[in-house]
């Protein structure tokens, strides 16, 4: 992810077919043995992601949502797709019970995004540094808020254009 500081990362889908922890911990900067959501970032390498909202679980995962605890907020459809027994077995086998903690759940993208931004002291998506990705395996295309759109101008390694394939999460 080509930005140093992100207020909110929106992950459209997470799953065992994406990463063993459903989201690549190197991409999101959150380790399987714990992480901090404190606003300070002295101990972290970029990108520093303050909040993470996950929208869905891939069908290939068959409900095993180990790693859901890496997110701060999730959509209700993701919560409904969790097979708690499969997740429990995988979590205990990997010795990471905190990975099975289910984050705050919201009925709509709008509610989740508003809550996430409120939790970092932002009230406007236009001013917040928001990035939306399909998943942590496919980072070729991403969607950014207006604040990051401005920052992306003039960066030779970024190509601006086109519609984001998954559609808007915060409109």
Summed up:
The chain has 171 residues and is α/β, with parallel strands linked by helices.
Shape: globular
Q: Return the string of H and E elements.
A: EHEEHHEHEEH
- The percent range for helix content is 10-25%
β-strand amount: 15-25%
DSSP strand count? 6
Q: Radius of gyration over alpha carbons?
A: 15 Å
**Low-confidence sequence ranges:** none
Mean pLDDT: 86
Q: What is the terminal separation in angstroms?
A: 22 Å
Helix/strand/pairing category? alpha/beta
**Major sheet: arrangement of strands:** 4-3-2-1-5-6
Largest sheet: 6 strands, mixed
Treating each run of at least 4 consecutive H or I residues as one helix, how many helices?
5
List the helices and strands and how they pair.
Elements: E1 5-11, H1 25-28, E2 48-54, E3 73-75, H2 76-81, H3 84-93, E4 104-106, H4 109-118, E5 130-133, E6 142-144, H5 146-152
Parallel strand pairs: 1-2, 1-5, 2-3, 3-4
Antiparallel strand pairs: 5-6
Please, could you describe this protein's structure?
This protein is an alpha/beta fold. The chain contains five helices and six strands, in the order βαββααβαββα. The protein has a six-stranded mixed β-sheet with strand order 4-3-2-1-5-6. A hairpin with an 8-residue loop joins strand 5 and strand 6. The longest helix is centred in the middle third of the chain and has 10 residues, at 84-93. The two termini are 22 Å apart. The model has no long low-confidence stretch (mean pLDDT 86).
């Amino acid at each position: 992810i080509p930005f140093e500081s992100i207020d909110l990362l929106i992950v459209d889908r997470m799953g065992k077919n994406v990463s063993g922890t459903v989201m690549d911990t190197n991409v999101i900067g959150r380790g399987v043995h714990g992480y901090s959501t404190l606003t300070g970032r002295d101990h972290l390498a970029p990108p520093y992601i303050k909040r993470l909202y996950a929208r869905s679980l891939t069908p290939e995962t068959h409900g095993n949502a180990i790693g859901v605890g890496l997110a701060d907020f999730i959509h209700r459809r993701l919560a409904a797709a969790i097979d708690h027994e499969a997740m429990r077995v995988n979590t205990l086998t990997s010795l990471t019970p905190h990975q099975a903690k289910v984050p705050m759940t919201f009925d709509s993208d709008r509610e989740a995004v508003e809550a996430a931004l409120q939790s970092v002291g932002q009230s406007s998506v236009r001013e917040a540094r928001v990035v939306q990705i399909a998943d942590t395996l496919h980072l070729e295309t991403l969607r950014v808020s207006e604040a990051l759109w401005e920052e992306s101008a003039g960066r030779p390694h970024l190509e601006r254009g086109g519609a984001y394939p998954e559609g808007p999460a915060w409109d």
